[in-house]
Design goal:
The complex is a heterotrimer of chains A (577), B (118) and C (335). With 577 residues, chain A is of the alpha+beta class. Chain A is built from 21 helices and 15 strands. Helix content of chain B is 64%, strand content 0%. The two termini of chain B are 48 Å apart. In chain B, 24% of the residues are buried. Chain C contains twelve helices and two strands. The longest helix of chain C is centred in the first third of the chain and has 36 residues, at 4-39. Classes of the chains: A alpha+beta (577), B mainly alpha (118), C mainly alpha (335). Chains in contact: A-B, A-C, B-C. Chains B and C meet through helix 1, helix 2 and helix 3 of B and helix 1, helix 3, helix 4, helix 5 and helix 10 of C.
Chain lengths: 577, 118, 335
């Protein structure tokens, strides 16, 4: 079937499968609508016949009060645009067949949609809540669900300014009222009901050894020094060996998407900074792209260059950090991490100069960037790109790559084959370390990446060592891009149109995605023409890359789990959202 | 010679004072306000599931056994080492045979894959 | 034969050594933190007292005033016993190390060692292996899964490296023809330092001893990244401090033993004319040796557990055995 695939073609499924697939004809929308009874059949077809082997994102939209819509974005691992499928179901009977058997990467995303929107996926092997806790009532992303201290559907909340005086509803409640427990609830005695389900879901090994010993369940996390945040893995170990492992998270969950739907479009820009707080510029980029698609604006030349420079600096900074902390996870006592942080500080200096903030940059706007580069910073960036960073990347390379312990700890650990990686929706450095040359900057170019000369590094072992190598190599490529961009950058405006607080976004949907340092960062935004997005969904790379964690850890040792987790490079702000 | 051991004995008794004083001082000075949650076992903030004291993987004990054999044999080698300069050739040959027997056991264990951690 | 003055002399010497070790332990922590900080282009603790020299006192005070928690399901007696079992062997192992030539103090001929037993090397091996019990018991009695794993790892690791360690001692012993540390130093004074004559034995000793005291890169039993704190995860306050102390005193101990066995101990230029140079030479060697240990910790990631065991059993042990055989053959040929 391979020869049938043309990368640029989007198959017109509605003519190919008449009666099963129809075109989405709403204005501002694209893609195809599939009735739920044909979903499995159609997705098998597009996977096997049409080569859409990567499931990018699954999410739902609550078109209150009519219907619930499940939105699937598929891509080809060879590159090209998205194939969007939609399944519409009634709100009170929101059941959709699970496509887990075809795309293993659906596991966590379907759980998320169940958790937040109450869409039930038939045939999902482990449909538990994922971000909220077991026992939580209601589905928070449904439009008729109201949070505690609900004030209004959209910001700015008018109730906060009675007669022009700011008043916060949090202050209306004295503290004591805030910690009222439900009836029959004693925090000392309470055991989360989901725990048992999690532990018993761990599968014991079946092979009958002659000397049978017991295995134990160990929780690695949430309060653990090397899970990169409040992240938890329930592991079943036999001696030192991992028999089964399941991640559990959501400890940092704040329902980013619900807050995002209350916010106006522009208010979400600084809010995206808080997702992957290591690389806020990339987050801005993805969100700006999605909303710009809806608005139909294009930033001026100079702004595009600035965006690319910032995004690549972010990549270098993020990779420095993940490399340093991977070494920490291997047990090196902070030395590599601190060496890496030293370079990161220099890049953060640049961010501070251009945006006023080191981490929460909030620098991008719909149609450009918020302000031009300050005087002299161009020289600083040039100096970084031509002098400092290349040498420092080489230094890191020299110090670590040939180290015997690093090699023995990383080589052949946490192997993910190319097929597994694609099937598990893994993106970013992990996918490329498994031998799939898929980088959105080349596969589905956005902004002005098609103008630069750079390579997509690929490694083929799919182990921790290759993931480390690929980050080193990507830093070199990013330096190359910055070198070109900073010499070619033209003079001119950095913003298209008039800056305004309340942007006008026409009704429709858009999916904007960028190659963030951690992988594919996507924003699915639905507007109904109001000041606030009707739906604001984040396809968080850290979250979806975690789907592969279990697969990578089985049969390795306890110590390897930490190294593998470090090599995935998660940021909990993005995982839990 | 016995004297020398007596001195070590004195040293040992004095050394005992250090942890004793430290623990005693701490008991005197430290606050004691135990609660149920404080005294619970630390497992990254989760309740421990299933008992901890179980029949653990056998391999740890296997190493213990192998160690015991070789350690004793090494201790037997020390007298040879001390008196090595004054030994007759026969004794040296004996020592070598002893080491060879040691090696035989070692190779057997290696072949049986008991040295590879699983 | 044993008069009261002699007993007093030994009590005073014991006290001096204990105090020296306690203070030494405190300043090794400062040394480590400052030196690590320099390697990592940081400053390190410098606020408590001049150059941060009062830092260990502040730490100690804090730990004394900390509440000590005992997990509800722990085996309380063993839980209390474990740190004591760990710390005492670390202290008494140094009893057989000579610190210098005999000196005349207040008109008395004073030997600068606690004891010169004729089986000092075996004594060292025996005493160091006792501290394994402390760590194992700590790990088991806490009733904590990390601690249990850490304790088991510690046991298997320490016994694996003890073999290589014992065989590494064999080289100097064959050359000196004695198990007494004093004799070994004397033998090095008359020939070369054994690091020159026994380089392989020294390297094996160096790595095996790091593994024996669970320092990076062999700090498997603690393994912060995996097992949070390993065997002492449940320990707090002074009991934790005792484990900490044991670890650092063991560092001093292996540095001292290494310096004595392979670097001539208190040997150095003019030491036979000016006897008080002896302790200074030994101290300098120990400080340098400790510096190398810290440097190693700053530079290397941790080895994985199964690789560590393989390294111990399949590489270090046969190498050490080979070294003993070669030494024996060479000695026969030279004689």
């Amino acid at each position: 079937m391979e020869d049938q695939i043309f990368v640029s073609d989007l198959p017109s499924l509605d003519t190919l499968y008449p009666g099963k697939v129809t075109l989405d004809t709403r204005s501002g929308y694209s893609g195809f609508i599939v009735p739920r009874e044909f979903l499995l059949e159609v997705s098998t077809e597009i996977h096997d016949v049409w080569g859409y082997d990567m499931l990018s994102s699954i999410t739902g939209v609550d078109y209150f009060p009519e219907k619930m819509e499940v939105v699937y974005h598929f891509y080809r691992s060879l590159g090209g645009g998205a194939l969007v499928l939609k399944v519409q179901v009634p709100r009170d009977d929101a059941v959709v067949p699970s496509i887990f058997s075809i795309y293993n990467g659906a596991e966590f995303q379907e759980r998320e949609a169940w958790d937040l929107l109450g869409i039930k996926f038939d045939g999902h092997p482990d449909l538990r809540r994922i971000l909220m806790w077991e026992g939580f009532e209601g589905f928070p992303l449904r439009k008729d669900w109201k949070e505690a201290y609900y004030e209004g559907d959209t910001k700015p909340f008018s109730s906060r300014w009675p007669e022009g005086v700011a008043e916060h509803s949090e202050n209306k409640n004295i503290f004591n009222d805030n910690v009222k427990y439900p009836e029959n609830f004693d925090p000392d005695k309470w055991i989360a009901s989901g725990e048992e389900a999690l532990y018993l879901g761990l599968q014991k090994s079946e092979n009958g050894k002659d000397m049978e010993t017991e295995s134990i369940v160990i929780n690695l996390g949430p309060q653990h020094p090397s899970t990169h945040g409040v992240f938890r893995m329930a592991a079943l170990v036999d001696g030192e060996e991992i028999v089964d492992l399941k991640p559990a998270f959501g400890y940092l969950h704040r329902n980013h998407e619900k807050i995002g739907e209350r916010n106006t479009f522009l208010q979400n820009m600084p809010f995206t900074d808080r997702l992957d707080y290591i690389s806020s510029m990339s987050n801005n980029f993805g969100y700006a792209l999605a909303v710009e698609k809806l608005m139909g604006v294009k930033p001026p030349e100079r702004a595009e260059y600035i965006r690319v420079i910032m995004a690549e600096l972010t990549r270098i900074e993020s990779h420095f950090m993940s490399t340093g902390f991977l070494l920490n996870d291997l047990g090196a006592f902070f030395t590599p991490a601190l060496y890496a942080l030293k370079e990161r500080e220099l890049i953060l200096d640049v961010f501070e100069a251009v945006s006023g903030s080191r981490m929460m940059c909030n620098y991008f706007r719909f149609g450009g960037v918020v302000r031009d580069l300050p005087a002299g910073i161009q020289e600083t960036i040039k100096n970084l790109a031509f002098e400092r960073l290349p040498g420092k990347v080489d230094e890191l390379d020299q110090l670590l790559t040939e180290n015997e312990i690093v090699r023995s700890r990383c080589m052949g650990i946490g192997v993910l084959t190319a097929e597994q990686a694609i099937n598990l929706s893994v993106t970013g450095p992990i996918l490329r370390a498994s031998g799939v040359p898929y980088d959105i900057r080349r596969a589905d170019p956005y902004s002005i990446y098609d103008r630069f000369d750079f390579d997509i590094p690929v490694f083929y072992h799919g182990d921790v060592y290759d993931r480390y190598l690929i980050r080193i190599e990507e830093m070199r490529q990013s330096v190359r891009i910055i070198q070109q961009a900073i010499t070619q950058i033209p003079e001119g405006p950095v913003f298209e149109g008039k800056p305004q607080y309340q942007v006008r976004v026409p009704a429709g949907e858009a999916y904007g995605r960028v190659e963030a340092p951690k992988g594919e960062l996507g924003f699915y935004v639905v507007s109904n023409g109001q000041a606030n997005p009707w739906r604001y969904h984040v396809r968080a790379p850290s979250f979806i890359n975690l789907t592969s964690l279990r697969q990578m850890c089985l049969k390795y040792k306890v110590a390897d789990v930490i190294a593998i987790l470090g090599s995935i490079d998660i940021v909990l702000g993005e995982v839990d959202r | 010679m016995l004297n020398q051991w007596l001195y070590i004995g004195i040293f040992f008794i004095i050394a005992m004072f250090l942890p004793a004083v430290a623990i005693f001082l701490a008991r005197l000075l430290s606050p004691k306000k135990p609660t149920k949650i404080k005294n619970s076992v630390y497992e990254c903030g989760m309740e421990t599931f299933d008992p901890t004291w179980i029949q653990f993987k056998i391999q740890y004990y296997l190493y213990g056994l192998i160690f015991l054999i070789f350690d004793v044999e090494i201790v037997f080698l020390f007298p040879f080492a001390v008196a090595y300069g004054n030994l007759a050739l026969f004794a040296v040959v004996e020592a070598i045979i002893f080491i060879l027997i040691l090696l035989g056991g070692y190779l057997y264990v290696w072949r049986k894959d008991a040295l590879t951690w699983q | 034969m044993i008069d009261a003055a002699l007993i007093w002399e030994w009590i005073i010497k014991s006290l001096i050594l204990i105090i020296f070790l306690t203070v030494g332990f405190m300043y090794v922590t400062v040394y480590e933190r400052r030196f690590l900080a320099r390697i990592q282009s940081r400053i390190g603790p410098n606020r408590a007292g001049p150059f941060g020299l009062l830092q260990p006192a502040a730490d100690g005070l804090k730990l004394i005033f900390k509440e000590e928690l005992i997990p509800a399901n722990a085996d309380k007696f063993i839980f209390l016993l474990a740190p004591i079992i760990t710390v005492i062997p670390a202290l008494i192992v140094l009893a057989v190390i000579p610190w210098g030539e005999a000196m005349v103090i207040f008109g008395r001929q004073v030997n600068l060692f606690i004891s010169d037993v004729n089986v000092a090397v075996v004594y060292i091996m025996a005493v160091t292996s006792i501290s394994v019990y402390g760590i194992t018991l700590a790990g088991w009695s806490s009733n904590n899964k990390y601690a249990l794993l850490g304790g088991l790892r510690a046991t298997a690791q320490m016994i694996s490296y003890e073999l290589a360690l014992g065989l590494a001692f064999m080289g100097p012993v064959v050359l000196a023809g004695s198990l007494s540390m004093v004799d070994i130093v004397r033998a090095q004074q008359s020939s070369l330092w054994y690091v020159v004559l026994q380089p392989a034995a020294f390297l094996i000793y160096f790595f095996a001893s790091i593994a024996e005291i669970n320092r990076a890169p062999f700090d498997m039993p603690e393994a912060e990244q995996e097992l949070t704190a390993g065997y002492h995860a449940e320990y707090s306050g002074m009991k934790f401090a005792l484990f900490f102390m044991a670890e650092y005193i063991k560092m001093i101990a292996i540095s001292t033993i290494g310096a004595t066995l392979f670097f001539g101990g208190f040997d150095g230029p003019f030491v036979d004319q000016i006897p008080w140079l002896g302790p200074i030479y030994l101290l300098a060697k120990v400080v340098i040796y400790l510096g190398v240990l810290i440097w190693v910790r700053a530079s290397w990631p941790r080895i994985r557990y199964d690789r560590l065991m393989q390294l111990g059993w399949k590489i270090m042990f046969p190498l050490a055995l080979l070294n003993v055989i070669i030494t024996a053959v060479v000695v026969v040929l030279v004689n």
